[in-house]
Amino acid sequence: MLSIQHITKRYRAQPVLRGIALDVAPGEFISLLGPSGCGKTTLLRILCGIESPDTGSLTLRGEDITAWPAARRRFGVVFQSYALFPNLSAAQNVAFGLQDLPRAQRAERVAEMLALVGLGDQGHKVPSQLSGGQQQRVALARALAPRPELLLLDEPLSALDAQVRGGLQAEIRRLQQQLGITTVMVTHDQDEALSMADRVVVMHEGRIEQQGTPQQLYARPETRFVAGFVGRMNLLPARVVAANRVEVGHTRLHCDTQAFRTGSTLLLGLRPEAVQLHRADTPPAGATDNRVRARLLEAQFHGPTALLRLHCDSLQATLDAHWPTGVDARLPDWLHGELLLDLPAPALHTLPLPESTRRAA
């Protein structure tokens, strides 16, 4: 439906977008995920026509729209700041983009959209009489009212508290699927991107670092940046010493090394939830290639789980691990002594070292 072809953008001498290429399928929900300054909001502003690219093109259903002004594109846009008219009621805000419709049809569409976002009885209120979550629902209803081909969301939930944000994430996803509207959302919140999008596009320094389904990005990050930005991951410098064998610190671990030559250096990635903890005084039966000793440095309580910081002398590294806190939310006493850690080979990801790190080495 939408094709973004080699878009670049500079502000003075500073490159902001460096050859962005992306195709969006009809009905797809795409999230542009990345830290502040990565170029994701600039790309969204180019999509909606507020900014123009320096080079590259945009095509919508095969038609070049690169030079079209925002009004001609008629995309629905929801901003972080809501951008509602403070002196107009919720119903009047939703009706603002429907001036071409006869009055009766306009009123019918406004009522339909307010009901769709759960505000059917709130149309008479002005924005100051609504909560932040309700104002964002009005902004969403206003964006959807003209039946746009594309919905653009610019960090739409970042100004809301966590509980309201979680509810609206599910609501926006439900509406998007119900209406089948193609959607591109900008966010820096990884949980938001993973829970809402069909495809997540991770951006870094003006480029697309990796894209894929939320499950693909989480299970198989391809670069150090993605591994560290999407979820939490232990990253350990390692050296390939033999086929499917790497050396970390003073320890050799078994993992898949097919993409690397013997003698090469790499990063070994392991999610905290994949680390298996055992008592040192009663080790589990069966030998393992990837069992090491560790001690607990600190524990951070996160409700249903605790994040454990563990130091392993043989790896010359500190690892994060998750531990379910259980009904009483307490850690067992044995976790405060010497521990055994199993690092399952299938859960160990081999990642290339960044170019700057390789040069330094």
Automatic annotation (TrEMBL):
<dbReference type="InterPro" id="IPR017871">
    <property type="entry name" value="ABC_transporter-like_CS"/>
</dbReference>
<protein>
    <submittedName>
        <fullName>ATP-binding cassette domain-containing protein</fullName>
    </submittedName>
</protein>
<dbReference type="InterPro" id="IPR003439">
    <property type="entry name" value="ABC_transporter-like_ATP-bd"/>
</dbReference>
<dbReference type="InterPro" id="IPR008995">
    <property type="entry name" value="Mo/tungstate-bd_C_term_dom"/>
</dbReference>
<keyword id="KW-0547">Nucleotide-binding</keyword>
<keyword id="KW-0472">Membrane</keyword>
<keyword id="KW-0067">ATP-binding</keyword>
<dbReference type="GO" id="GO:0005524">
    <property type="term" value="F:ATP binding"/>
</dbReference>
<dbReference type="InterPro" id="IPR050093">
    <property type="entry name" value="ABC_SmlMolc_Importer"/>
</dbReference>
<dbReference type="InterPro" id="IPR027417">
    <property type="entry name" value="P-loop_NTPase"/>
</dbReference>
<dbReference type="Pfam" id="PF00005">
    <property type="entry name" value="ABC_tran"/>
</dbReference>
<keyword id="KW-1003">Cell membrane</keyword>
<dbReference type="InterPro" id="IPR003593">
    <property type="entry name" value="AAA+_ATPase"/>
</dbReference>
<keyword id="KW-0813">Transport</keyword>
<feature type="domain" description="ABC transporter">
    <location>
        <begin position="2"/>
        <end position="230"/>
    </location>
</feature>
